[in-house]
Amino acid sequence: MRNELTKPGRKFAYNQIALVTVITLICSLIIYFIWGFESAKSAVLGSAIGIIPNLLFAYKAFRYAGARSSKLVVESFFSGVKLKMALMALLLGITVKFVVISPLPFFSMFCLVMALPIITPFIIKQQR
Fold it and tell me: With bands split at pLDDT 50, 70 and 90, how would you rate the model's confidence at 36?
């Protein structure tokens, strides 16, 4: 059963992730035309390592809402953060170990994905 109180937060989180995805795909396309396929592949991998855990976090964080389920809200938020960090570390480790990457585009896009959620609330206006 979906909680109606979580709809605005969940919608905003998904809109934010969609905007970050579009921005990173545009940047990856620019990298492709400037530095080639290998750099663009590294940029896409770096951004995916940031975006996929954020999607799972948004799903976990906005499962519960309301005063009666305040303990569930806190537990789901913290379990979402733990899952996000563990998945991000796992994906980063696997990629660095098994995939040949260009470090500059890879880590630049990863850092961009980590920094964009600070800016996107000013771009996306939350509707009441």
Answer: very high
